[in-house]
Design the sequence.
């Protein structure tokens, strides 16, 4: 990953490179294990979510394909998203969101 520290004068020992480290990690090809975990999570989501999420899962799979290990069958990834149409779960009743609360000033007393 990335590591940097300050020297005895308070200066960075190496040029700051956090952004580059994050971008490199995001662009790094996945290992076979990471690809299998991704496919499993997509499959799990497809089984739990309704068919209305099929397009979003398909987009997630398409993005994942760019980094996925080529040794892991890509059909596992696409099949996982496509199964969301055949495994639709009943949707629980929707609950209204709570009413917004006002921000408290630091001097306000809280009633519990």
Sequence:
């Amino acid at each position: 990953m990335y590591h940097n520290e300050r020297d005895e004068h308070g200066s960075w020992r190496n040029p700051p490179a956090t952004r580059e480290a994050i971008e490199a990690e995001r662009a790094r090809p996945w290992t076979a294990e990471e690809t299998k975990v991704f496919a499993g999570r997509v499959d799990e989501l497809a089984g739990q979510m309704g068919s209305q999420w099929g397009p979003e899962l398909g987009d997630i799979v398409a993005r994942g394909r760019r980094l996925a290990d080529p040794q892991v069958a890509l059909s596992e990834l696409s099949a996982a998203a496509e199964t969301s149409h055949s495994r639709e779960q009943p949707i629980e009743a929707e609950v209204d969101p709570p009413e917004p609360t006002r921000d408290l000033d630091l001097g306000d007393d809280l009633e519990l």
About this structure: Residues 29-85 form one domain. DSSP finds four helices and no strands in the chain.
